[in-house]
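Sequence of Acyltransferase (Streptomyces poonensis).
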Amino acid sequence: MTETVVSTSTSQPAAAVRAHERSRTVPPVPVPGRRESRLRALDGLRLVAALMVAVYHYAGRGGDVAAAWGTSPKTQFPTLHSFAAYGCLGVQIFFVISGFVICMSGWGRPLKSFFASRAARLLPAYWAAVVLVTAVFALPVVAYDAVSPSDALVNLTMLQQPLGVDRVLGVCWTLWAEVRFYALFALCVVLPGATRRRVVMFCAAWTLAAVIAEAANEPLLDLVLMPEYAPFFVGGIGIYLVHRDRRDVYGWGIVAVSWLIGQHYAVRNLWNAADPNAFAHRTSFGIILVVTVGFAAVTAVALGLLKWADWRWLTAAGALTYPFYLVHEHLGWVVIHALHIGLRLPSSVTFALTLASMLLLARLLNRFVEKPLTPRLRAALSRPGGR
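Predicted 3D structure, token representation.
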């Protein structure tokens, strides 16, 4: 926030001087939705996180994807599968990025504008992905079962998980975590108005409350406070505070505490012992390393250390991240089965073509769904309504 300097020479009329003096005692009113300069490296990092998750879903786990390959990905990729197993941590990196971006976009923005921005960003591509996956899975030639029509309709609300409804998109559990984060941030920060002090207090309160929820083992508190994911969202918020002022000791403290707690949850939930019957062995060191690199990468962007990565194509690539993330898993299974089992293409070729086809589909969704519908939905939700 810059301060306008006004001349107060002796020739200035007394009334103007008094008005200027009064203006110095009144804090500047933030401009709603003030835009920051584009952090293109962050766009690239978002796509990297999405690709990590995709690699995990195609080559880093067993389950339904094994039916698409015909055998376990462990057999298809004897070396890659061990590294691909760490790709699931792309979700935690997403959450760090989300904390950064939501704090940045919510600062100085009224609640209605914040809600309109988030809804318009998430819903068009999400609705299209739900319809598309449901339609493809309903085809007789596809080996996977579609959810019931009733469950598919409930999925359009993004509330299928708390309602106990079958999910159309396997990755939508992360969107439910995002929605809860948005709600907490909106109620505690955006509604009363974002200030540095309020954001710091929010981070401290959420961190402490999440730890208490973990100790209390109370399902309702877990549902609201998300102890295992809160450190990543809070860490991203702390990184944004550092982005605003790299000398902010509290911001650095928030980042450090969030990293410490976040790596604990990541290791606890994702580590598995070395077992020949296990799909892959994720070591504590490997998990901590990936989490650390994720925090460090977002922090490097925040500090301007990656300003040199200011290529325009990163913004275009970043625009593919969300639709790619939505469709890559389930539709990727269909493509893998068609290419590897149907056309008998080698595993490596199938893997590359599946990633490419999902990126192409994401480009189509971005071009024909997000670009036309997102601004219209945002405008409709931002329109003043009657009382």
